[in-house]
Amino acid sequence: MATRSSPARPSSGQRGGGSSRTPRTTKTPVPRSKNSAAPPEGQLVWPVRLVVGIWQGLGHLIGGAIRRMGTDKSDMPLDERRDGAGLLFILLAFGTATFEWWGLGGPVATAVQSVFEGTFGWFSVMLPPMFLVFSVLVFRQPGNMATNNRVALGFSIMTLAGCALAQVAGGNPNIADGFEGISAAGGMVGVVAGGVVASVSPVLAIVVYSLVAFASILVLTNTPVRHIPARLQGIYETLMGTAPSRETASGHDQSYLYDHEEPAKKPRRSRAKAKAALEAAEDEGLALTEAFATPLIGSDDDASQETPSAAPSVRPGMRRPTRDELRADKIKARQGLPTTSEVYDVQAHDAEPVTEAIGMVAAAEPSFFDGNSAATQAMPAPPAMPPAPIPARSEQLQLSGDVTYTLPESDYLPAGPPGKDATAANDSVVAALTDTLQQFNVDAAVTGFSRGPTVTRYEIELAPGTKVERVTALSKNISYAVASSDVRILSPIPGKSAIGIEIPNADKEVVVLGDVLRSANARRTEHPMVMGVGKDVEGGFVVANLAKMPHLLVAGATGAGKSSFVNSMIVSILMRATPDEVRMVMVDPKRVELTAYEGVPHLITPIITNPKKAAEALQWVVREMDTRYDDLANFGFKHIDEFNKAVKAGSVHPPEGSKRVMRPYPYLLVIVDELADLMMVAPRDVEDSIVRITQLARAAGIHLVLATQRPSVDVVTGLIKANVPSRMAFATSSVTDSRVVLDQPGAEKLLGQGDALFLPMGKSKPVRVQGAWVTEAEIKAVVDHVKGQLQATYREDVAAEAPKKVIEDDIGDDLDLLLQATELVVTTQFGSTSMLQRKLRVGFAKAGRLMDLLESRGVVGPSEGSKARDVLVKPDDLAETLAAIRGDGDAGGGAGVVPGGEPAAPVDPMTAALAENANANHGWGGDLVADDLASRPQAVDYNDGDDEEGGEDAWSLTGR
Ligand SMILES: Nc1ncnc2c1ncn2[C@@H]1O[C@H](COP(=O)(O)OP(=O)(O)OP(=O)(O)O)[C@@H](O)[C@H]1O
């Protein structure tokens, strides 16, 4: 959505101390008129008036024609025009071209030519296009000083470098060589700029000035040095007509996590794209100039200013626009933007080619205030529709070579209605806020607002000397004034010296997932774990890469929008990733939320609804992670991405004699729709698994998404919180819950229905987003498509029960007491029955029985009458002993005590792990036989394509 500035910002001069109560909205700014500096025409003598009149008339004539080219800017107010200057530059362009290019002349032309050539040498042949570009800028965007100054600076640097290079090429003449000598080289500018360096070393001069010339191109094209590779690649791809490669895409993707489509991140317009824009623009009634002007000038701000858009039309029955809207509309119309008081009358697909072609993204520009202008500045709105369909990919599935898998068509997720830029409701809130500030004598003003789908963020700027607290203390009064209890104050807006007041829109909009996935940022990368999150308060699409989170906690009260978010996430994955790329484990204890996905081939196991089974599945994920880690370590890789890349490149080979076929690992996404249910059945086990997974799984390509409607400390424990760095908080029922999720208040003020605070890893301030919405029909269509291509092949071992704990019959119900007794005896190293009686508050018979059990487990020696028994286990071995008594199968290699009483030889856990690993599931380093695998439930024939073992490859997929 657009950001627009209201006319209400006070200049420091206007503020004049805290007592000023002048309503700022009514302040008439000084018009920014070039004429105000000049003497009134009436005071000039008539011949001068005549010349000025003719000059200006001619300027307006040519300026008018140039403004009509491309996006029509012909209604630029008179006082903003600089047609006189534009005329000067255009005359300079054609004047210099007549003698420099076309060799025409006469005495005047020859004199002027001498001046130019004496000054710039033969570099003066470059002057006509520079003047021409500049004249177009001055005619079309005289007020855009940032761009105009940058272009002027770029041309100046280029001229200096060009003249210096010409100086070297011309043999480094000096003034003594006279006009002939220096005009045949770089002119006077060349002598001054390049003479000294060229006299030291011509080669050095060529290197230095070539670099300066290159720098001038960077200035002209507004290209930061770090963007050069991306720009070059863009040019290459455009020339070759290729899409970005997967590697590049993910490479780019490394750099962002939460990706708001800021103007600075807009893709560059390439010439080919500009050409496409031109063709599309002609369809849309836009003409040539816009399409070529920006690549030539190459600035992001140009692109944002020249957003072509669907031509608006007025529908019958529409309300009359307000005066503010009309003013804003006028400016927008000049910029070729859709106007606020009109409605889009263009179908989604009509708008797409244009926006795609020029690489526009839906982005909100920061609001700005022009102290000399009273007009409400409407900044470019995002395009009515996202730019292009999600690129279709068909993949040859690697795990079953003969299956070709096509990702779902973009059409499965229809476009939503265009977002609104500003409505009358926004204007009345601005008025209410301004009134409130005035009533309480706060020297501050509403300087603009940016409208998001659910809330609008109004920006308030303070006069110097006014405390921020003066505004924040007014929160209740503001709520009262705007008749909303859900007012959230941001002080300051991150990255801005302004206070943000977020107020719900009376007319909310739904953000549909299709639009988010078709946004430029989502399409910029093919990374399979990228999901559509929603839209932020400035109307920018937010996408996030789940692989970079690397784990996400989703929390919010019931009905706040968690499940809808989880649905959007899953559908994003189904839309973008093949089952080879991403596999999922879904845990849905509520049994209703995720049933729609039952049977999709991305699932590794049927949807788990039993909390106990879910806890076991998490343990499987831990084992899976360990297996992957071992594999990475054995092959010398640090991250699964590197491993996969190497496998795809064919540079990873199984050890001699192994039948293993090397295949990339898919990402594994584990989604738990209600963590509380799991924590109720097995809090310790679930927490342990989650902590282990979250601490390590990132490199193994395993990512957790934990959703809960009970973000209390017993569900989201400190340990879980510490290890799940990214958070998505939907409306919570209390500020305490908000603190549990975000470590700060705020979520309790959210509005529900998808309104959320998104805090990706590494950010300190959450971003408010309206979550993307996907309907049941859309989900069904996508799921049907996916299931229609492949059947799910489940891995048996995920849902299989973890190795059973063997509790000896003779312990019976006394396990807890026995464990306590063991702990007591081992820590005190005192085997006394009466101590057990006292400490455990049990009778003599029970204490004696416990002591017998301890003897049978080798913890204490035999009875020696009334003497205390010998304690055979050292305190260091207590943990293993307890595990053995509990019957844990994986108790650190089985050290400690074995039933039967004989202490076993202690086994180093690391040695045990290595032994396990060496014989594990990958088929290298040993000749595995089916029995080995069968007898080893944790060792899965996982990536091994060896069908001789009777079963199908666990990852293989069957086509229909
Ligand atoms: N992103 C969204 N856009 C629009 N409406 C939404 C969005 N998310 C949720 N809603 C609305 O809110 C309702 C509840 O959402 P949802 O079922 O996702 O909540 P929940 O937090 O999962 O609740 P529960 O915990 O009870 O399942 C939805 O039926 C829908 O009407």
TrEMBL record:
<dbReference type="Pfam" id="PF17854">
    <property type="entry name" value="FtsK_alpha"/>
</dbReference>
<feature type="compositionally biased region" description="Acidic residues">
    <location>
        <begin position="943"/>
        <end position="952"/>
    </location>
</feature>
<keyword id="KW-0067">ATP-binding</keyword>
<feature type="region of interest" description="Disordered">
    <location>
        <begin position="1"/>
        <end position="40"/>
    </location>
</feature>
<keyword id="KW-0238">DNA-binding</keyword>
<dbReference type="Pfam" id="PF09397">
    <property type="entry name" value="FtsK_gamma"/>
</dbReference>
<protein>
    <submittedName>
        <fullName>S-DNA-T family DNA segregation ATPase FtsK/SpoIIIE</fullName>
    </submittedName>
</protein>
<feature type="transmembrane region" description="Helical">
    <location>
        <begin position="84"/>
        <end position="104"/>
    </location>
</feature>
<feature type="domain" description="FtsK">
    <location>
        <begin position="539"/>
        <end position="739"/>
    </location>
</feature>
<keyword id="KW-1133">Transmembrane helix</keyword>
<comment type="similarity">
    <text>Belongs to the FtsK/SpoIIIE/SftA family.</text>
</comment>
<dbReference type="InterPro" id="IPR027417">
    <property type="entry name" value="P-loop_NTPase"/>
</dbReference>
<feature type="transmembrane region" description="Helical">
    <location>
        <begin position="119"/>
        <end position="139"/>
    </location>
</feature>
<feature type="compositionally biased region" description="Low complexity">
    <location>
        <begin position="20"/>
        <end position="33"/>
    </location>
</feature>
<dbReference type="InterPro" id="IPR036390">
    <property type="entry name" value="WH_DNA-bd_sf"/>
</dbReference>
<feature type="transmembrane region" description="Helical">
    <location>
        <begin position="189"/>
        <end position="221"/>
    </location>
</feature>
<dbReference type="InterPro" id="IPR050206">
    <property type="entry name" value="FtsK/SpoIIIE/SftA"/>
</dbReference>
<feature type="transmembrane region" description="Helical">
    <location>
        <begin position="151"/>
        <end position="169"/>
    </location>
</feature>
<feature type="compositionally biased region" description="Low complexity">
    <location>
        <begin position="1"/>
        <end position="13"/>
    </location>
</feature>
<feature type="binding site">
    <location>
        <begin position="556"/>
        <end position="563"/>
    </location>
    <ligand>
        <name>ATP</name>
    </ligand>
</feature>
<dbReference type="Pfam" id="PF01580">
    <property type="entry name" value="FtsK_SpoIIIE"/>
</dbReference>
<feature type="region of interest" description="Disordered">
    <location>
        <begin position="936"/>
        <end position="960"/>
    </location>
</feature>
<feature type="region of interest" description="Disordered">
    <location>
        <begin position="244"/>
        <end position="272"/>
    </location>
</feature>
<keyword id="KW-0472">Membrane</keyword>
<dbReference type="InterPro" id="IPR002543">
    <property type="entry name" value="FtsK_dom"/>
</dbReference>
<comment type="function">
    <text>Essential cell division protein that coordinates cell division and chromosome segregation. The N-terminus is involved in assembly of the cell-division machinery. The C-terminus functions as a DNA motor that moves dsDNA in an ATP-dependent manner towards the dif recombination site, which is located within the replication terminus region. Required for activation of the Xer recombinase, allowing activation of chromosome unlinking by recombination.</text>
</comment>
<dbReference type="InterPro" id="IPR018541">
    <property type="entry name" value="Ftsk_gamma"/>
</dbReference>
<feature type="transmembrane region" description="Helical">
    <location>
        <begin position="44"/>
        <end position="63"/>
    </location>
</feature>
<keyword id="KW-0547">Nucleotide-binding</keyword>
<dbReference type="InterPro" id="IPR036388">
    <property type="entry name" value="WH-like_DNA-bd_sf"/>
</dbReference>
<keyword id="KW-0812">Transmembrane</keyword>
<dbReference type="InterPro" id="IPR041027">
    <property type="entry name" value="FtsK_alpha"/>
</dbReference>
<dbReference type="InterPro" id="IPR003593">
    <property type="entry name" value="AAA+_ATPase"/>
</dbReference>
<feature type="region of interest" description="Disordered">
    <location>
        <begin position="298"/>
        <end position="326"/>
    </location>
</feature>
